[in-house]
Design goal:
The protein has 8 helices and 3 strands, in the order ααααβββαααα. It has about 170 residues and is mainly α. Strands 1-3-2 form a 3-stranded antiparallel sheet.
């Protein structure tokens, strides 16, 4: 948006399932920021630790699946020992980066997380309030939210929320 590249913004809008017609750059930027904004590192760490058993689960080891995302075709992942649906699998990835990217895309696009995205836009939002909007991430609902909050607190994951990767 700062470079005035409307075509690039339209590509991002398509990737993030945003219907655009004749939006100008400022309108498109505002709509995209609701979907493409960053996620707290503490939240991603907590969810990946819970969903992958600290990276030790069969899904993490064999399928690079850190966030327990489901897929509905046997060729897209690993079959759990117990699944509610015959065609349900835990989605697999070729590498960990793809798992993180899919997790971010999921939170940034799925209708179940719209409230999460709206809360994230607030200036002074705390991690406990933000996690409350993820009650549909797991079938455990509120129990899952409490697990997330505890994981963040006990491991002091908020210390990493302002971390940045250094370029080589």
């Amino acid at each position: 948006a700062e470079r005035g590249d409307l075509n690039k913004l339209r590509q991002w809008a398509e990737l993030y399932r945003i219907k655009i017609d004749d939006a100008d750059i400022d309108e498109l930027r505002d709509v995209l920021l609701l979907r493409v904004d960053k996620l707290p590192v503490s939240l991603a760490l907590a969810q990946s630790a819970i969903e992958s058993g600290w990276g030790t689960s069969r899904f993490a080891v064999k399928g690079n699946a850190l966030f327990g995302q489901w897929a509905w075709s046997n060729d897209q992942g690993l079959k759990p020992a117990e699944a509610r649906y015959d065609n349900a699998v835990v989605r697999s990835f070729s590498n960990l980066f793809d798992s993180v990217r899919a997790y971010m895309h999921n939170l940034n696009t799925h209708p179940s997380y719209e409230n999460f995205r709206r809360l994230r836009q607030r200036e002074e939002i705390d991690i406990n309030t933000l996690t409350s909007a993820l009650d549909s991430y797991s079938e455990e609902g509120d129990i899952y939210i409490e697990k997330l909050r505890s994981m963040v607190e006990v491991n002091e994951f908020t210390l990493f929320d302002n971390a940045e990767l250094l370029s080589e």
